[in-house]
Every structure is written in structure tokens, then in C-alpha cells.
Design a protein that fits this description.
210 residues; Arc Repressor Mutant, subunit A; 2 domains; four-stranded antiparallel sheet; globular
């Protein structure tokens, strides 16, 4: 059985009682993923929700013309795929590891039993509302901002006010997340370097202006 202490660090689970956290820990299991491993595919039957413990997970969706649209890059302590509990029985996106990752798995059937507890159910609804606000904000910034605006918003959304960050994924993955090409992103980085907005060495970004 997994310990419940890590669950308490998640924004989703942190307000749950110790007894509820322990109950969650009893149904949870750990899965290790290598870089580029697929956790689940769009359209597959949703048998679990997940909490990312370590690494980075990209959620993307296929478009009718065969392209992929990145919906989100999941960071440690975030819950994802919870949509299969209520809205649909299949996963609406594909989840792929952008780096070596550890995920905690909560089987759908067992989570449904926990949702009979009022406190757990209330916390879960609050989480859904936060995610709705995030998705609405993401749609707005994708439509209203140019590549530079999307890039700076992405850094703020993913890493907050950290001045120095180490990307757990490639530049290609970052470009996909902001809806541009790696070549356009490289040109943008050069411009931002000249303006002394940031520096980029390897996978480390140092922001002079936040």
C-alpha cells in the first residue's frame, strides 16, 4: 500500500481528512513510465484516474485532419483523467510521458465508492471547477495572444514565479504545447535573449523579467 503523505501534497487531495487520505492510499498503486511511454490513448475505456508523482505527462487530442493538439502538460502533484468518473467512459485525450515519470493510479470503480463520502465529493467538485477555469483561460490566451504571449503565459502557468527552471521535456514538446513549431520557438528565444527577457542553456531557463 502506498503512503498517504504524498497525496496530502496534491492541491486536489490536500484538504481531505487523514482517514480519507488513508482510504485513497489503500486503493492506489504506482506505475513507472519511461520517456515516450503512453499511459492511455484517446478513446480507450477509462478505468482509472491518475496523480503525477514525478516527471511530466503531455495530454493531447487528435484533430480530424490527423494532427495533435496539446491540451496540457501535467506537472507533479496534479490529478488528471478524472473526466472518466462522471462525463464519459472513455479517455478524451492521449497521455504520453515527456520524461521518466511515476504516476499513482486510482481505479475508477473504487473512486466511485469513495465519492459516496460527502467531503470527498465536495472537494472533487471544487477541483473540476478549478480545471474549468484553467481550460477557459487557456482557450482565451491561445486565441488572444501571439506566440510570445503564449510562451510567456505557459512559463508562468507551469512554473509560477520561479526565476530559474529546468524543463522536464524537450523544446519540441514545449513548442507543441503553445501551438507553434520548434523553428518559430527558436527564433522567439533569440529575440527574448536580445531583449534580456530570459536566457536558455540546455534545458535551463533563467528569467530576468517575470
Amino acid at each position: 500500500m502506498l503512503g498517504y503523505h504524498f497525496l496530502a501534497e496534491s492541491n486536489f487531495f490536500k484538504d481531505l481528512s487523514r482517514d480519507t487520505l488513508k482510504a485513497l492510499a489503500t486503493i492506489a498503486s504506482m506505475k513507472e513510465l519511461k520517456k515516450r511511454d503512453i499511459l492511455f490513448r484517446e478513446g480507450e475505456v477509462g478505468r482509472a484516474i491518475y496523480l503525477l508523482k514525478r516527471g511530466a505527462i503531455q495530454l493531447h487530442k487528435a484533430t480530424p485532419d490527423g494532427n495533435e493538439v496539446v491540451i496540457k502538460i501535467v506537472q507533479p502533484s496534479e490529478v488528471f483523467a478524472e473526466v472518466v468518473l462522471f462525463e464519459r467512459e472513455s479517455y478524451p485525450v492521449t497521455a504520453v510521458a515527456l520524461s521518466s515519470s511515476d504516476v499513482i493510479i486510482f481505479p475508477r470503480a473504487e473512486v466511485h465508492q469513495l465519492l459516496n463520502t460527502l467531503s470527498f465529493r465536495n472537494d472533487f467538485i471544487a477541483m473540476l471547477m478549478r480545471k474549468q477555469r484553467y481550460l477557459a483561460e487557456r482557450i482565451v490566451q491561445q486565441q488572444a495572444h501571439d506566440v510570445e504571449g503564449r510562451f510567456l503565459w505557459f512559463l508562468k502557468e507551469q512554473f509560477g514565479s520561479q526565476k530559474v527552471v529546468t524543463l522536464p521535456f524537450s523544446k519540441k514538446d514545449l513548442a507543441a504545447a503553445i501551438g507553434t513549431t520548434p523553428e518559430t520557438l527558436s527564433r522567439l528565444i533569440l529575440k527574448l535573449r536580445k531583449r534580456k527577457v530570459l536566457s536558455w542553456t540546455g534545458k535551463t531557463i533563467t528569467r530576468q523579467k517575470i
